[in-house]
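Before the break, one more example. Copy the sequence into your notebook; we will annotate it together after we see the structure.
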Amino acid sequence: MANLHRGEISATLDGKSYKLCLTLGALAELEERLGCEDILALAQRFESGRITAREAICVIGAGLRGAGQDISDDAVARMRAEGGVPAYLALVIDLLQAAFGAGSAPDKKESRQEDQSAPFPGGV
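Here is what the structure looks like once it is written out:
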């Protein structure tokens, strides 16, 4: 079971339950893959709520690998989430909020509520 206080979230991809976590190593991977100078630049990149499909794949892949899964971004790109694109975006938002401390609400809907003090307000 995912522990939000440790930055973990749960997700179902291809009908299988996974734990995801953006560890420091996963964040370093994202910095490199997305060409960000540091963690602050990485946070600012997503602050607007806009994200490309490629960025979503990178975030989900880094989160899976941060939680111990050996899954490539190519495999992530082929995974399906029930609910389609909105489900992928909700997953990315929840994962970024868990990593950057945008809230400690255990309910996913609550964690995506608009919060202007959080680096990821949840609006996509």
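The longest strand covers residues 8-13. Residues 103-124 have pLDDT under 50 and may be disordered. Try to locate both features in your own notes.
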